[in-house]
């Protein structure tokens, strides 16, 4: 399987991208500084904690309204805490700020803070960062909102509203001046508290008007961006959006191979330094996807069901998969093979409720942070050896986690 190389726009690490200062790139008045922070949401209590990754100290503790799912912005300056059951999204300033100066980037570190802006809507679901903005999708409202990060950091909110036709568990992603929006089945018969299924994806322009025909994508779920491509998981295959000309983005379905076992992709991650996607394929398999290859899919078998998986921002060929037996696996995405594994937690079964407390992964500074809600810990594992190097005690049940940080010049 050939993975397409892309120019890597170096940016703040938000579990998906990293900043490293180029050796010798700084003038004499520059020193290299490094800072990493973990943002950890509790599984049960409505609280988000900010932890200094170097010494494990708590830098901030913010009371929110409900259970929070965390997403970092593309720049790493903001973390969004979406509280599905409380109908609100809070924004947290990370205190990590990189500025580009051509031959180097400066790093400014300040105190984190819960920002005085909130976003309210019925059942907020997917939060999708892209460039200098973020798209907020509300499952039980007929809208998505596009908001600029700079405005949020200034304590003000200006929203561009995207019509989602009818409440549904969907997603919206920007692509240039266009927005890719999931389409609900408006004719489906549903119970009063039930949302309609997703049947496809449509493209809308800046006026909110649909461009071209809807692309079929049954039970659309999961999205990711890699280079200039955006991918969506569907029952038929993976739908890929490519930038187009005056007619808007081009949508192409990559059907699953006929000899694949029956399953489909519902979670996707996008490569940054290489153009590829990594997705689940059912509960106990993954797929590597090269949208430009003649055979775009590579199936990866796992020994047991996966609990979580992440890409390594600093080592773009590495992906990490935690399975329910407590093993952490290293996937070489170029070889398409599992190249290392080690036990890092006790078993966490996938049986039971989908939202039961189970570990989650984040990658920071060549190390993997693994939440262990059963033991009130974040376990820190060396990415090369897969050996646990230390633990960080976190009160309650640490669950959702993102890492933000990197290195830069300090004057």
Note poorly predicted spans: 4-27
Name of the CATH first level: Mainly Beta
Structural class by sheet pairing and helices: mainly beta
CATH superfamily: YVTN repeat-like/Quinoprotein amine dehydrogenase
Number of strands: 36
Annotation field: number of helices: 1
What name does CATH use for the topology?
Methylamine Dehydrogenase, Chain H
Largest sheet: 4 strands, antiparallel
Return the average pLDDT rounded to an integer: 91
Radius of gyration: 20 Å
CATH architecture: 7 Propeller
The strand order across the widest sheet is: 4-3-2-36
Number of domains: 1
Which range best describes the helical content: under 10%, 10-25%, 25-40%, 40-55%, 55-70% or over 70%?
Answer: under 10%
Word description of this protein:
The protein is mostly beta strands and 411 residues long. It has one domain: Methylamine Dehydrogenase, Chain H (7 Propeller). Helix content is 1%, strand content 51%. It has one helix at residues 149-153, and strands spanning 4-5, 31-42, 47-52, 58-63, 69-72, 78-83, 88-93, 96-100, 105-109, 113-120, 124-130, 133-138, 143-148, 159-163, 172-175, 178-184, 198-204, 210-216, 223-226, 229-233, 237-242, 250-255, 268-270, 274-275, 277-280, 285-289, 297-301, 306-311, 318-323, 327-332, 337-343, 361-364, 367-372, 377-382, 388-393, 398-410. It has a four-stranded antiparallel sheet, with no helix packed on it. β15 and β16 (178-184) form a beta hairpin. The longest helix has 5 residues, at 149-153. The radius of gyration is 20 Å and the shape is globular. The termini are far apart. Residues 4-27 have low confidence and may be disordered. It comes from Phyllobacterium zundukense. Keywords: Plasmid. This is Zinc metallochaperone AztD.
